[in-house]
Specification:
The complex is a heterodimer of chains A (about 425) and B (about 270). Chain A is of the alpha/beta class. Chain A contains 12 helices and 16 strands. In chain A, the strands form 2 sheets. A 10-stranded mixed β-sheet of chain A has the order 14-15-13-12-11-7-10-9-8-16. The N terminus of chain A is likely disordered. In chain B, about 50% of the residues are buried. Classes of the chains: A alpha/beta (about 425), B alpha+beta (about 270). Chains A and B meet through helix 2 and helix 3 of A and helix 1 and helix 2 of B.
């Protein structure tokens, strides 16, 4: 079926229709948060802007973080250093979890056992076994469960996914994604080296750098972006080959400071024949030129995506986006109204002339961290377990990123595990 | 061994710079990165041009409904409202839309605009506030000496060291008006316009008109946010009124009024 503006609109409309609608007459959801460090604080700030949330408890076992969390949460939130005590005492309906990766499984299971609906930060679990067990327990518990892969709530990504599904970039042939930075990815420790408490605090605050607590760049950064690949391609990768190491920041860390991955996805083309999509993923800590972005490449165009910008580059010489063909509507603005629902495509003034003038996915509003929580709370309120990023998505994402680390360690191709 | 660590980054539509002094370069880098990430976070939440920001959300909805905001934004807007009153309305984050107060509901942490046309813009306080938040991080992680600056117009000196700062002529960027030493204080310089601007983008909330003249005003204060509030307010008041205001309030250690007489000569005068 040829892709017309109309079929694209219908696909995009379906995505938009699922956005949260809240009833104003119900009491706010009694919510607590476990983990009030950097990400936890982002989540607290977002939670406190949502009318339907009553944030009644905050918990962290590191007192400076707990103080920070309490400051953002406000005086109506009780503070705890032990999350089990908080669950017992506050009896929350919903729990938001932002603790180091190695604790995800244990804390999430304890919250489910306490009868709570759970929002768990990505990556869902530290091992695939834990992910499988957690998935079984979520299903058995019938609780509302969402993983914090916020691109699933981002207006740009939702529209881009609808565009890919509608065939606007043709057959997807390749994906290139990266998260590049130029800094040590190290958090400061409040006491000098040589202080008796330094090592303890280093492991506590820089848990991302140590293998006992962290799965490194893939879990903390790559999980978001490989989830985009899984989501847009509608499946998980079949296999991966990855190479990584510590080449620059030789500061005692155990996780790689750079990693390059080649994933293979097996899909069926429009002609029914199987073909392979290759996704290249890299993460670097000493060159920030490309930043964090995903490039979805198809036979008719490419989508360049970040949390704040989405650009569509058409392949030259192809009859791609149907509104280009209409001579009466030469400007993007004239066509923009057709795309509707608060999102417009407009001609960008981006200087990447050699790529051709892109169309830009314009977000009217929305902040993906806030929006993912609004959606979660809406599902809690309606006791709807079909969240925008459910336990199956979380488990698939977890397996996708951990297989890359496994490939680095074994030095060979790793096949996607049986889930 | 004492080391000095430098880091530059883009935020709030300009360049920020962090200079930290201490013993351990790895630690200074980690602190500088945390400061830069905090300032970029504030940029994302305070910019009225970013549709994902909290300020953009307020500008969309607060004319018609009370909008629940986080405690950080509430405290900042409360401070802006307080500054509007303290400066007799000359500092006003709603200046461009006619100037108006905010309705602050502290119990529910909610904001409502009192005027249907109000749109707020934190451009005259955001950089200073961001630098002050950076100072909090420095102190939390034991960095006691440093200089933070945003767009060269907002500066915050931390610790016992003197930091020499050259104040340049607003219309002739190569011409230095005066060198001052900053020690443990905030600094802000507001100019009616820059060399590349034909008209000022600063609006007098009382008249609704953009500033005329080629004046500039530099203020030192305890925090970078205070310095920014008063460099804007005093400049908008104009020299005579600012002079009277300062005589009555006695708020500052030191201020400078920079008056551009013509392209070549400038007058620089202490007003307190």
């Amino acid at each position: 079926m040829p892709i017309t503006r109309r079929t694209f609109l219908e696909t995009a409309g379906a995505t938009l229709a699922s956005s949260a609608l809240l009833c104003a007459d119900d009491a706010p959801i009694r919510t607590v948060i476990i983990g009030t460090g950097g990400r936890g604080s982002d989540l607290i700030r977002a939670l406190t802007t949502i009318d339907e949330v009553a944030l009644i408890g905050v918990c962290d076992d590191y007192s400076p973080h707990l103080e920070q969390g309490a400051k953002y949460a406000g005086p109506q939130a009780k503070t705890f250093s032990d999350y089990r005590k908080m669950l017992d005492e506050m009896k929350p309906q919903a729990v938001v979890i932002a603790v180091p990766l190695y604790l995800h499984y244990k804390v999430a299971v304890d919250c489910l056992s306490a009868g709570c609906d759970v929002f768990l930060e990505k990556t869902m679990c530290y091992t695939v076994d834990e992910a499988k067990k957690l998935a079984a327990q979520v299903v058995a518990s019938k609780r509302v469960f969402q993983v914090g892969l916020q691109r699933r709530a981002n207006a740009i990504y939702k529209q881009a996914q609808a565009m890919v599904a509608a065939g606007m970039i043709g057959q997807v042939t390749s994906i290139k994604a990266q998260w590049h930075r130029n800094n040590s990815w190290r958090r400061p420790v409040p006491v000098p080296k040589g202080d008796a408490n330094w090592l303890k605090l280093e492991k506590k605050l820089n848990w991302r750098l140590y293998k006992a607590y962290s799965a490194g760049l893939m879990a903390e950064l790559g999980s978001h972006q490989m989830d985009v690949a899984n989501w847009f391609l509608g499946t998980h990768p079949k296999r991966v080959f990855a190479s990584g190491g510590i080449e620059y920041f030789r500061d005692g860390r155990e996780v790689y400071d750079n990693i390059s991955c080649l994933y293979e996805y097996e899909l069926k083309g429009t002609d029914g024949k199987p073909y392979t999509v290759r996704a290249n993923y890299t993460s670097l800590c000493n060159n920030a030129y490309e930043g964090a972005a995903e490039l979805i490449m198809g036979t008719k165009g490419s989508l360049y995506l970040t949390s704040a910008k989405g650009l569509l580059f058409q392949e030259k010489g192809t009859d791609v986006v149907s509104w280009e063909g209409n001579k009466d509507q030469q400007t993007a603005d004239a066509n923009a109204a057709v795309v509707t629902a608060g999102k417009t495509l407009k001609l960008s003034n981006d200087p990447w002339a050699h790529r051709g003038a892109p169309f830009e996915i314009d977000i009217a509003e929305g902040n993906d961290t806030r929006d993912e929580l609004v959606s979660f709370i809406d599902h809690v309120r309606r006791q709807d377990t079909k969240t925008i990023c459910d336990v199956k998505v979380g488990m698939t994402d977890c397996a996708t990123i951990l297989m890359a680390n496994q490939s680095v360690e074994t030095g060979g191709w790793v096949t996607f595990p049986v889930l | 061994m004492r080391v000095e660590y430098h880091r530059k980054f883009a935020a709030m539509n300009t360049r920020f710079e962090i200079i930290l002094r201490g013993e351990d370069e790895q630690h200074l880098e980690a602190v500088a990165v945390m400061v830069s990430e905090e300032i970029q976070r504030l940029d994302a939440t305070l910019s009225r041009f970013n549709p994902s920001s909290e300020i953009a959300r307020l500008n969309r909805h607060a004319n018609t409904n009370a909008v629940k905001v986080d405690r950080e934004i509430f405290a900042l807007l409360e401070r802006c409202e307080c500054a509007r009153k303290t400066t007799q309305g000359f500092f006003d984050i709603a200046a461009a839309s006619g100037g108006a107060g905010l309705e602050l509901d502290a119990e529910n942490c909610a904001i409502r605009f009192t005027d249907a046309a109000t749109q707020i813009d934190l451009g005259a306080i955001g950089k200073g506030y961001a630098l002050d938040c950076g100072r909090e991080i420095l102190l939390r992680y034991g960095v006691t000496n440093g200089l933070l600056q945003g767009g060269t117009s907002s500066i915050l000196a931390i610790g016992a060291d003197d930091w020499p700062i050259d104040v340049r002529h607003p219309l002739m960027p190569d011409k230095i008006v005066q060198r001052i030493e900053l020690k443990n204080c905030g600094f802000s310089c507001s100019a009616a316009r820059h060399a590349e601007q034909l008209h000022s983008d600063i609006i007098n909330p009382h008249s609704g008109e953009s500033l005329s003249g080629d004046e500039a005003c530099a203020v030192l204060a305890e925090s970078a946010a205070e310095a920014e509030i008063f460099s804007t307010a005093l400049l908008v008041m104009g020299r005579e009124r600012a002079w009277q205001y300062l005589q009555a309030t006695q708020e500052f250690e030191l201020n400078r009024w920079i008056e551009v007489a013509d392209k070549e000569t400038i007058k620089c005068q202490f007003i307190q």
